[in-house]
Design goal:
Chain lengths: ~250, ~290
């Protein structure tokens, strides 16, 4: 379970350009929930995600994941609970390292990176078996540098890397924004399948209303740093695209 | 022949420098020029320790620790105070000049008698061959150890730190601490180079580090070119090629001296040589584009 209590964040405090990014956010996400967050640019959804991940410290408020209060921890300590897929495919993987090396690092998300050779034949087989489910033929290219792959392939691998250590919370930060429609759909189907299979708690931030409708079992709309709509599975399923579009329509 | 063998031995003394710069510039992508100072610091510690009768292995270790501390300073200035790493390196390098001068008390100290690395073995009748063997063995050991480190889980995290900080932080690595460790290791190696060089040439001079970063960089770039030609991905092979780069670089300098270039112009020749090496891939790339 993930719980946010009275989370607030302002930028440029005390200057004319002061921005209230998050305003007393209270949010509880139960185990196994797949929450989709939509909102216009500047509505605070990215700040919310970054506050959860630890990239942006909140001005006030507390964040619990299961029994632990994590709000004061830096990014690299929250990785015990949180895995993240970035908007930019380049941010989630190291280009010059091989696919195998990237997976090795991901497998050590919660552990110390020790001075031992961790890439054994056994590990190689595990990764190959894991990658096979993508159906991209990448399992035979484990020693290829990540940089030689396409954005869609890298994003799919990042997703697998994020899921392999069974995180308590999976953050998907507009993961398809840089992909073509076909790759985007493939990636989201994979994400949906993996989240269901492993019963993961996940948050998806997206601008794509189709995705917002199709995936997840809870829909949240943010506006001016506040949660203005919070719909459960049943209500969400009864929505159509025109209705969500109307949320953004101020004419 | 003697002349070229001496150049190769000198190149092997520069080996740890090339490996250190490979670490900071290529693995961590930090343009670290603390090296000019840490190289001299290694040589200063060596000459002082050997004069005091400190055992040779401990002397080498102390030289490396000195360099590592200098690297730590640069990395801490960069990570804690958020200062550009280039500037941080210049600051530490400048400060080290005074530190080195104070430690030495004068600008040049010769290494008088006593045991050095190069007097350890007498397997061959010819002293240069002994020197070559011992420094060669040392370098093979260092390269293998460093290759192991960079291939380990910890090493993967180091390499990822230079490439994609956001990624490796999201995988639970404290990148600031990693940079401190990386620059400490790099400058420890560079100081070891100073330690070897002062033993090889038999003295330590306050100015011996000036422009040394260029020699190291030239070696690294030659090594990089060899790595990309041979399409190597393994770390051990890459590190050996970086050392090979140092040898090629020193041989190229030796050749220019042998054909009668004034020794006073050595730094100019060095700079031009590095410029040539850096520009070469660009030129050949242009020609390839023109052909295609």
């Amino acid at each position: 379970m993930v719980r946010l209590q009275q989370i607030s964040k302002r930028f440029h405090i005390g200057t004319p350009t002061q921005v209230i990014a998050l305003q007393n956010i209270d949010l509880t996400i139960n185990k196994g929930q797949f929450v989709v967050i939509v909102g216009a640019n500047g509505s605070g959804k990215s700040t919310l995600l970054n506050t959860l991940a630890g990239n942006i410290p909140a001005d006030q408020g507390k964040i619990w994941i299961d029994q632990d209060e994590v709000g004061h921890l830096p990014v690299y300590k929250r990785t015990r609970w949180i895995a993240r897929v970035f908007q930019n495919p380049l941010s989630g993987t190291a280009s010059e390292l091989s696919i195998l090396a990237n997976f090795r690092l991901a497998s050590l998300r919660r552990e110390r990176k020790k001075m031992v050779l961790g890439i054994t034949d056994k590990f190689r087989e595990e990764v190959a078996a894991n990658i096979q489910q993508l159906g991209m033929g990448l399992e035979s290219k484990l020693d290829v540098p990540m940089g030689s792959l396409s954005g869609g392939q890298r994003q799919a691998l990042t997703l697998l890397m994020a899921v392999m250590a069974k995180p308590a919370l999976l953050l998907l930060d507009e993961p398809t924004a840089a992909l073509d429609p076909h790759s985007a759909r493939k990636l989201m189907e994979l994400a949906d399948r993996l989240i269901c299979e492993h019963a993961l708690t996940a948050i998806l931030v997206t601008h794509n209303l189709n995705e917002a409708l199709r995936y997840g079992n809870r829909l949240i709309q943010m506006q001016s740093g506040q949660i203005v709509r919070d719909l459960d599975m049943e209500v969400k399923n009864s929505l159509n695209q025109a209705e969500i579009l109307a949320w953004f329509d101020y004419f | 022949m003697d002349f070229y063998l001496a150049a190769v031995i000198q190149a092997l003394c520069f080996g740890p420098l090339a490996l250190g710069l490979f670490l900071s510039m290529k693995i961590f992508r930090i343009p670290d020029i603390t090296s000019d100072g840490s190289y001299t610091l290694g040589a200063v510690i060596t000459v002082l320790c050997l004069a005091k009768g400190v055992p040779l292995p401990l002397t080498c270790l102390l030289a490396m620790v000195g360099g590592a501390l200098a690297g730590c300073c640069t990395a801490l200035i960069h990570t804690r105070l958020r200062i550009n790493p280039l500037l941080a390196g210049i600051l530490v390098m400048t400060a080290l000049y005074s530190v080195n001068l104070t430690l030495m008390g004068r600008s040049n100290i010769p290494l008088l008698g006593g045991e050095t690395l190069f007097s350890l073995i007498h397997w061959f009748g010819y002293s240069d061959l002994n020197s070559f063997t011992i420094v060669g063995i040392l370098l093979v050991c260092i390269t293998i150890a460093l290759g192991y480190l960079l291939s380990s889980d910890f090493g993967l995290a180091m390499r990822a730190t230079g490439e994609s900080e956001s990624m490796i932080r999201a995988l639970g690595v404290n990148t600031d601490r990693m940079k401190v460790f990386g620059l400490a290791l790099a400058n420890g190696l560079i100081a070891l180079s100073g330690c070897l060089m002062s033993q090889f040439q038999g003295f330590t001079d306050i100015n011996m580090g000036i422009g040394i970063v260029i020699s190291g960089l030239g070696s690294v770039i030659i090594g990089e070119t060899l790595i990309s030609i041979l399409r190597l991905t393994g770390m051990w092979g890459s590190l050996f090629l970086v050392v090979a780069g140092a040898v090629i670089f020193q041989l190229a300098l030796a050749v220019t001296l042998a054909i009668g270039v004034d020794a006073n112009l050595l730094k100019l020749v060095t700079a031009l040589l590095v410029l040539l090496i850096v520009a070469l891939p660009y030129w050949t790339g242009l020609r390839r584009q023109a052909d295609g």
